[in-house]
Amino acid sequence: MQLAIVIMAAGKGTRLKSRRPKVLHQIGGRSLVEHVVAAAAQVVEPKDIYVVIGHEAAAVRAALQHTGVRFVMQGEQRGTGHAIQTTKPEVEGYENLIVLSGDAPMITTETILRLRDFHLEQQAAMTVLTARLADPTGYGRVIRKNADKPEMAADVIAIVEQKALKPEQRSAPEINSGIYAFRTEALFKHIGELSTDNAHGEYYLTQMAALLVKAKERVVALETADVHQVLGANTIAEMMELDAEMRMRKAQALMAEGVTIFRPETSVIDSTVTVGADTVVEPFVQLLGQTTIGSGCRIRSYSVIEDSTLGDDVVVRNGSIITSSLIAKGAVIGPYSHVRPESEIGEGAHVGNFVETKKSRLGAGAKANHLSYIGDAEVGAATNIGAGTITCNYDGKAKHRTTIGANVFVGSDSTLVAPLAIADGSYIAAGSTITEDVPADALALGRARQTVKPDWAKKMRSRKN
Fold it and tell me: Are 279 and 295 in contact (CB under 8 A)?
């Protein structure tokens, strides 16, 4: 069975009052349309997904280029029916077609599969995914044939837009989601019959239901029990409601897998994050992007972890920021550490209070516990970096690397001027500025000799009097 999926992503979303295309606004750590593409890609290959673009087409194309989907340009936005007409050269060879909305991000793969299977079982020309709302005002309604006979209730007469509802239809609770399945041959045989006789002068895909019924084709409806899956957002406030719902569902799914999340309503956990069992997430934590956290970890309050991988039994203390980095098993980060991109923190290593790392690797058991900057550096296993140490990696034009071996002791307030190599087992005296390589097991000092002048302070005070 040949199946294509078309995702509608050409609209402006003017009610958002935003310069960004509506489908590129984000919830749950992804743009609206990326969520839809991710769900669709579990049903068909990306090459069988066609995204209709129009408004800010270049931006939408750029955002989705990595997914492998195909694009169809709707140069002039003349309605949903017109959008599907533009796809005809690309999709008319498929037997069936599913149409998804690029701004309905909570649709799931399971629902798409259910829609596909129901459409095929019913041998329908068109299947409409519907939902029942307590207050359906503002939505188009699905008018069923023989609604008083449950065994025949799948059949549909028409989809009627809110403004065109007759008085007796306004109480109909079942809304049109804008998500459909079509038998492709029937769709394109009759799509040319769409008219612009409506308030906006556009070609509405909803009109296909009545056209197909008139042509003696079967149109059916499938109701989803999860209303959130078909809801879009027309305002930023509505979008944030969907974001809260998606993030709470993510937290609940993680807790069902053995993760403890205190006060999950305060957490910001993206849909793409994975967390191992027995990990504890404290309140006000953010876990973002392609982050993977192992089991038995503890992520303490106010920490932000993005696009990073943490091994098992890692402790991230309060207020730490970790970005695009690798943290090995048993490491301890924080409090208030800043682990910047391309850092690798080895097994059992410590990165402590107000320590910043960037493009650096700390070996197993290495420690930098206080007030240090480690940039463009390699630090060997079991090395201790004293408080206030910095690697001077930038000479005003270029970055240079510092290499520190294993079992090195770097005294507090040391300044290590790159390029520099400090060999295994050596000592750097506190307060030193080191500009030359240090051999193994050596002591390096780079500071002025201390001078003490007896009674100097006493004499100074007497002069002031």
Answer: yes
pLDDT in tens, 266-309: 999 999 999 999 999 999 999 999 999 999 999 999 999 999 99
Could you report the per-residue pLDDT of 94-114, keeping only the tens digit for each? 999 999 999 999 999 999 999
**Interatomic CA distance for residues 257 and 249, integer angstroms:** 13
Cα separation, 338 vs 353, in Å, equals: 9
Q: What is the per-residue pLDDT across 59-87, written as a single tens digit (0 to 9) for each?
A: 999 999 999 999 999 988 888 999 999 99
**CA gap 261, 283 in Å, rounded:** 7
Catalytic residue of the set 35, 55, 200, 370: 370
- Please choose, from the candidates 2, 51, 41, 48, the residue with its C-alpha nearest in 3D space to the C-alpha of residue 182: 2
Location of structure tokens 């937290």 = 251
pTM listed for this prediction: 0.89
Q: How far apart are CA 174 and CA 347, in angstroms?
A: 56
Mapping DSSP to helix (H, G, I), strand (E, B) and coil, where does residue 39 land?
helix
Question: If you compute the radius of gyration of the chain from its CA atoms, what whole number of angstroms results?
Answer: 31
Known catalytic residue at 228:
no
Cβ burial of 424 (10 Å; 0-12, 13-18, 19+) is middle
- Edge to edge, the sheet with strand 321-323 lists 268-269, 286-288, 304-306, 321-323, 338-339, 356-358, 373-375, 390-392, 415-417, 433-434
- Count of CB atoms situated within 10 Å of the CB of 151: 6
Cβ of 234: how many Cβ atoms within 10 Å? Answer: 14
Burial class of residue 278 (count of CB atoms within 10 Å of its CB; 0-12, 13-18, 19+): middle
- Can you tell me the distance from the alpha carbon of 274 to that of 290, in angstroms, rounded to the nearest whole number? 8
